[in-house]
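Hi Y.,

Following your request, here is the sequence exactly as I used it, all 588 residues.
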Amino acid sequence: MTPTTTTPRPTRPGGVTPRLAYRSGAAGRGVVWALATAVPLLFLAVFFAYPVAAIVGRGFAPDGALDLTAFGEVFGRPRTWRIIGLTVAQATVATAFAVVLGLPGAYLLYRCDFPGRTALRAFVVVPFVLPTVVVGVAFRSVLAPHGPLGFLGWDGTFAAVVAALVFFNYAVVVRTVGGFWASLDPRAEQAARSLGAPPWRAFVSVTLPALTPAIASAAAIVFLFCATAFGVVLVLGGTGYGTVETEIWVQTTQFLDLPAAAVLSVVQLAVVALALVAAGRARDRRERALQLRPAETTTAQRLALRGPGRRNGDVLALAVTAAVGLVLLALPLGTVLVRSFRTRDGWGLGNYVALGTTGGPNALSVTVWEAALTSLRVAVDATLLAVVMGGLVALVVSRRPRSRTGRRAVRTLDAVVMLPLGVSAVTVGFGFLVALQRPFGIDLDLRDSLVLIPVAQAVVAIPLVVRTVLPVLRAVDTRLHEAAAVLGAAPGQVLRLVDWPLAARSLGLAVGLAFAVSLGEFGATAFLARPDQPTLPVVIFRLIGRPGADNLGMALAASVVLALLTATVMLLTERLRAGGRTAATGEF
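Below is the corresponding structure, written out as tokens. Let me know if you'd prefer a different format.
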């Protein structure tokens, strides 16, 4: 009888088989993932859900008992239905224009290669992170009777609000659709062309259907941003074209009608929930499409405007993008820049010299430069918080659990983290003042703490960090994680060796975007900034509200400083990710 031999299982250097190592590390990995989920959820629960619930609860139960009579009163007012209608109308029209105008820009900046493309990408993003009050003043200057576009007669009209909303959200469409477009395999369109289809027919029949998930995702996010716009609508629309967002502010700060503000907050949350569901479904379809693309990377094509290789689509894309860039983006910013050099005595640098002072009587308590330093310090803290919390969420949501319950939990976490994008920053800031006087019954008043400002700004920036990093992490092949775990790699080693090399560039983009958003955040900061330590957007708003040409000139000069800081941050971010394929999905 031939003796049988048993092949020994391979062991690790410590004498432990890979399977045993895998099982023994399962509990540790479970703890790690539980902590990665619990930390950001706890942060958002304390600094987002709790303040919002406090302000809504104060409105619904002013005396500690549930009272729903406010619903009947608010919905019985014709003003309420007019405001809801205006909110939906402005968001819908602005979204349509942003998508139509953004598609040529997405093609030009992400499918074509030409000198200066990186700088142009950074310039396109600047409006998205500018303070809303600055943009409102810029558009009012452009559309005023004596402004460059005063002949249109749009000052204080519905069209002015829509134009400003498109100004803000143009970059969302360009980056979201453009990044996805750059990852598409061009061979399908080339095959259609080789079969005799003209360029426009190949685009309509092949490329446009492939872009539909990205377009739907961008449209849902733009609608969300437009429906919750605050500063632009307040400055340009006033009471005549107010939205639910501005009405919450009016009812809260001017009339102190918390029940009415609470009802409107519920209406806004419902709109936000619908937009987030639509965006989530579009994103799911988009990710499935990404998984179907060929493994080889695609390269941008040279811009062809003349000669035998001239493409009419390139000419059209360049013409539309140039018109949008010059009239819609550059003209308002240029108007602010030019007017910042106009002083009482003529043209000069007087407004910039005045930034080292506190302005006119009772204007400011600190200089603009001191406020700029405060903004930079706060932005650093807010960025650190947002990147840590958002990175943990993106890491958890990027996993693909095998169980249906696990997949639902991941989708729920993703949706919950997106809620700060749609909830009024005014509501969050005011909720801080209401809820953090005695948080959770603890005898501790946090309302005067400077820590609340970066915390509030981090709450606003976390969803953007998640949307930037998540697509890259989801693109990592899960078999790499499984192989590393079977071989005994600890969770930290898996992250360092598998995920980090791919996510590093997108994380740099997330840092830049969070930093820029923190620099320009105004809604919540206006409630929390102390008079002796305001941020730069708060100072600009105070100067705009003070009478006198000198104060207005200082506000415009300070706006130019803030715009330059933002542009510098975004330009550095673009250079860090230039040439990388990790942000191919272009998720904003």
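The longest helix spans residues 18-60.

Thanks again,
Q.
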